Amino acid sequence: MRPLSLACRWRPSCCSYLTLPIILFLILMKMMYFKLPIIKIKVWIFFLLFCNRNEDLKQMLESNKDSAKLDAMKRIVGMIAKGKNASELFPAVVKNVASKNIEIKKLVYVYLVRYAEEQQDLALLSISTFQRALKDPNQLIRASALRVLSSIRVPIIVPIMMLAIKEASADLSPYVRKNAAHAIQKLYSLDPEQKEMLIEVIEKLLKDKSTLVAGSVVMAFEEVCPDRIDLIHKNYRKLCNLLVDVEEWGQVVIIHMLTRYARTQFVSPWKEGDELEDNEKNFYESDDDQKEKTDKRKKPYTMDPDHRLLIRNTKPLLQSRNAAVVMAVAQLYWHISPKSEAGIISKSLVRLLRSNREVQYIVLQNIATMSIQRKGMFEPYLKSFYVRSTDPTMIKTLKLEILTNLANEANISTLLREFQTYVKSQDKQFAAATIQTIGRCATNIVEVTDTCLNGLVCLLSNRDEIVVAESVVVIKKLLQMQPVQHGEIIKHMAKLLDSITVPVARASILWLIGENCERVPKIAPDVLRKMAKSFTSEDDLVKLQILNLGAKLYLTNSKQTKLLTQYILNLGKYDQNYDIRDRTRFIRQLIVPNEKSGALSKYAKKIFLAQKPAPLLESPFKDRDHFQLGTLSHTLNIKATGYLELSNWPEVAPDPSVRNVEVIELAKEWTPAGKAKQENSAKKFYSESEEEEDSSDSSSDSESESGSESGEEGDSNEDSSEDSSSEQDSESGRESGLENKRTAKRNSKAKGKSGSEDEEKENEKSKTSDSSNAESSSIEDSSSDSESESESESESESRKVTQEKEKKTKQGRTPLTKDVSLLDLDDFNPVSTPVALPIPALSPSLMADLEGLNLSTSSSVISVSTPVFVPTKTHVLLHRMSGKGLAAHYFFPRQPCIFGDKMVSIQITLNNTTDQKIENIHIGEKKLPIGLKMHVFNPIDSLEPEGSITVSMGIDFCDSTQTASFQLCTKDDCFSVNIQPPVGELLLPVAMSEKDFKKEQGMLTGMNETSAVIIAAPQNFTPSVIFQKVVNIANVGAVPSGQDNIHRFAAKTVHSGSLMLVTVELKEGSTAQLIINTEKTVIGSVLLRELKPVLSQG
Questions:
Q1: Distant-in-sequence, close-in-space partners of 192: CB < 8 Å, separation ≥ 6
Q2: Where is composition skewed (Basic and acidic residues) in this entry (predicted)?
Q3: What is the pLDDT of residue 452?
Q4: How high is the pLDDT of residue 454?
């Protein structure tokens, strides 16, 4: 056909989507010219619109331009985010997995993680690329490659996945280690036979000190080997102390795991007031044995310190913004804390009732379970469970359940008035539930039984049929308890049979009349007569009760009801329902005497008119307490797949010493044997008292966590170097604690180090029993941290040098004898590069907590802190076109330089964009201004094609923005490059109190002060916006401020250490004043010029 030929000639590659409507119009006109059916026209339009809809994306992905590929990947990821299917683009996308552009590569991995499991065959073709990406210098690429590799669910690549997980578990980046923990669960589900090897990796990752990894590895532990409690012993105290700083979903997993752990390792804290009442003496048991048992029973309960550590460290998480975390802590307190302490969770759970309806539903379910056993916990918050008109039915029902559990003699009158309002609700299901609640209250509280019964009888005249029916059912249950006293109510209910149509209610009335037929002898036969007329049209449930009523009346009043009962039995004999037919035959043989009647006929009256036990109205949540609160099994009231049951408390607590982490022997060799106290040498890791943990662990933990969470190599370098530089001082401080302060002063003078006396005093005041812990951890980490430093400088060569230094150091440590004192170790240097800033770096939050607390005897207020923000912006050092395929970029990591205390740290990333190896990359001739100094990186032997490497160097800019010019050389060429620092990178952040800030600012006035007025919109003057803009421009630290309109920042220059104080004071209207106080007036004015436009713009 001619339209078909036209469609075949059209190709989407010849035109864009802008011309598509024109082409469709032309095709439509031509089809109408040939008078084709309208259905065919629709088919062709559908074909043209949808069959080629992704052709332009495929062409963009095959383009030679990175910009087109990047645009295509953004559109594809956008399609995935909107829920659209983009699987048909997999072949075109996977080709770009080896792209040199880092942004394209990231988006490709995002796509592959989503579709690798669906397109396994195509993903396998690129598995070699994924393996190469596992060694990429960028941590995001390494992590993404591992995620894609673990998403390919093919058993043949299990060995490759196993090897990749092992390598990633030892990666320097905590983000990569976190993804390794995630991959463990995927590999285990693919091949459970790898369990033993995976347990080894889990054991290794459990020792990780990074808070980023903790939650993920515990999740892997719960999936792979939840019964291996022995892996947790050594890490228990670490997990308890890290818990506050772990990400929220990691906190949930860890808390649930520690709950199970506590139930197996500690004795029950609920035995405090319980006394065994076993007074009987066993036969053959002596008086001494009986006395020993009595002493054991009377022995007071003492909580294990580790048990107390867990309860104390989880308490702050009750203030978490995440409802799951609060719920996890609540279930922990419910299952393992003493009953006297569990009450603190009630306020936090009630706070969660302000959340969305899904959260409310789960929280109310757990409160309903708790309120059955411990009513006193939630009685003060009774009004919080009152039903609102906007609540959905499921929430209303749960609140009714809780109100019923909390009802007692004191508050029942208030609750009944509340229930009267609920009965009038338009929500009929809720109104019916309220009537059931009234019945339960009447059952549980005897004093109000009659009141509730009278109220329910009044509801029988309600216009709503559902309310009346539910009232009848509840009244029937109540009357079973006191049938003699309420004959009038039964008569009243019998009259309702003419108006009530709900089958359950009609059946309940008939059952009541049948049970009490002897008390209402005149009414019962008449009711049976009416029911016989409508028997054929009744519901099956009602028919069964009519048969029962007839049988009971036949046995008690056969004179009036014999013929009527036989008539009903004849109707039931031919009913369509086989249950009714069976019941009819059974009753006939039982009550009507004939030749075939068996022995049971004699006992028919006892069978039908036996006394029935009163129903027990119980809460549906009564039996849910055997499930762990907050779990899916508790919500569904059935054991779900993967549910781990809580074990019973052990009668005798297992050995608590398994949780002690011993100090390594290397640290003991350094301690003089003649001076060490016996109690200090026997003290274990984390085994301090509760008070010491509160004061010392919080600071040491936050310090280690702030370094580990960042994921930056510079952070690990800084921590390791600081720990190593303070090892000797901590040793001397420990020795002085063993003797006296005078000995410490003599040792410090003998060493000849200026300022060491102040450091020793500071160590004595701030360090408690954790000093040995910090020392041992610094020794353990020195090798790993020094490796991270050497890797940031160069790759293979510097690693060898570091390993040789370690070997020499170990050889030097071996011959130490007991008579060697610390004074003989002056020339000993740990294996790490010394840092010129010996003061430990503190996080801003910790510095705010320690505001006003001066730990040293010196009057200096300058203490360098970690950077609060590290910009990711990179600068071009050498373009690939100018460098003949060698590209270089640099950025400022804002960390103290490891090459000198006056140098600015710079990281340079070198990329080989050619298809040939580049050899001997090094720094050539330097053209530096007077005073500038440079520490270069070690020469790089070779850089593979498409390879990349990051190296570190330091430059002393002498507190100026002068350009440092030098040559970047390869084996064949030299290229002139230069680095000019932004003024904000010449600073190091300083932590100080507001009082010290004002004191220093008062000394830097007049010529040392520069200021400017800023005009901007009010939304640009919020605290978060000002903070973000200032720290993005300059490496400064935030100073706590007691005034909302004043924001203060402090730093010091890298070279001279001069203070740089920045103040942003908000004025009325849309203006603010920017003030900078510093001795370096040139740098201050330059910084003012850079900050002013940034703060002014929106």
A1: none
A2: 279-295, 676-687, 731-742, 796-809
A3: 85
A4: 82
